[in-house]
Specification:
The protein has 343 residues and is an all-alpha fold. The chain has helices at 10-24, 48-64, 74-94, 161-166, 170-177, 184-200, 214-236, 244-264, 287-303, 312-331; strands at 127-130, 154-157.
């Protein structure tokens, strides 16, 4: 039998001749096209990996929260994470990113220590601690509203809080910070949602960082200053026996004001001696709605700075502050929308 020729075939020469001018004109094949010599295929769309990882994480955490007491925070948190995953999937599709369907599992046993396993939250009895009031109503300034959570004046330290904290990995924050400007805010909002979830589920030992860019800190500082001023005014008008919930909120706001002032540095505006009080402040019946609205404004102010959190340090601080303020607003009755106040 004659040996195989080492000379190129006519077909190969024709394809090569076609490839050279096409490559010179900047033509690229579709990502799923067969490989042709000399014509590169398109790379994956930007943020493909972080978008897929984020949607997967959200669905796994939502699954881990399934089956909990519907009167507890786990039900609205599951709705929040599911809504975020659905919205991110649509955003990804519009950018040409295909999100893989979540893997199904035949096992019904669950664990809250690692949301990556897709396991359910533990059912052991939580420990109750006094904290900010849980919501009795829900409102939102835009987007999909998430329903209210628990209705008691105390929030339990639920074992499922570890599911939320486990999702807040340094690698997830770094990946979100490194995403494109188009997708970074929504990705950071999902992480702030986990921080918020940990807070409303009763976690109290969460880390607090400092690292916002000075301009971002200065912008957020202004609504926080107003909220502190109003909270102090309301406490002065409230009987001592009824000040516990307001005092807890004021402690959070005062601590954040101090951190933000440090981060802002010379970018901070001089602090005003007094502020115009919102309408209804003189009516004790409006205390809850007044503070819920003010804290929501603080969280929305943080959301507006999410595009500037391009480093891991800045993103870590932003996620923590955004989540904590969203949780406080939610506990006072202001339910978040899908991406926690993003405009």
């Amino acid at each position: 039998m004659p040996g195989r020729s080492n000379h190129p075939t006519r077909r190969t020469l024709l394809l090569a001749g076609l490839a050279l001018p096409l490559a010179g004109c900047g033509i690229r094949l579709e990502r799923d096209a067969p490989e042709i010599l000399g014509i590169p295929t398109l790379p994956p769309p930007a943020d493909s990996t972080v978008m897929q990882d984020t949607v997967t994480r959200l669905r796994q955490v939502a699954g881990a929260l399934a089956g909990q007491d519907p009167a507890a925070w786990t039900a609205p948190l599951r709705a929040l994470h599911t809504d975020q995953a659905d919205r991110l999937t649509r955003i990804a599709a519009s950018a040409g990113i295909e999100i893989s369907a979540p893997a199904t599992s035949s096992s019904s046993s669950t664990s809250t220590s690692s949301p990556q396993t897709g396991t359910a939250a533990p059912t052991t009895s939580p420990t109750t601690v006094t904290t900010d009031p849980a919501p009795t109503s829900a409102s939102t300034s835009g987007g999909s509203a998430i329903s209210s959570g628990a209705t008691a004046s105390t929030v339990s330290v639920h074992p499922a809080s570890t599911t939320e904290t486990a999702a807040l990995t340094a690698s997830a924050v770094a990946a979100a910070a490194a995403a494109t400007d188009e997708h970074r805010p929504a990705l950071l909002a999902t992480l702030a949602g986990h921080r918020c979830g940990a807070r409303v589920l009763g976690a109290t030992d969460l880390p607090v960082a400092v690292g916002l860019p000075s301009a971002s800190a200065a912008a957020v500082l202004e609504p926080v200053r107003l909220a502190v001023y109003v909270a102090e005014t309301l406490i002065a008008k409230t009987a001592a026996k009824d000040r516990t919930q307001l005092s807890t909120l004021l402690s959070l706001l005062t601590a954040e004001r101090m951190r933000l002032r440090t981060e802002a540095g010379t970018a901070a505006k001089p602090e005003q001696l007094s502020y115009a009080l919102p309408s209804g402040t003189d009516n004790p019946a409006h205390t809850r709605t007044t503070m819920a609205r003010l804290v929501h404004d603080c969280a929305t102010g943080v959301a507006a700075q999410s595009g500037a959190a391009t480093t891991t340090g800045a993103a870590t601080r932003l996620v923590q502050l955004w989540g904590d303020l969203t949780a406080a607003g939610w506990q006072w009755g202001q339910a978040p929308d899908t991406f926690l106040g993003l405009r």
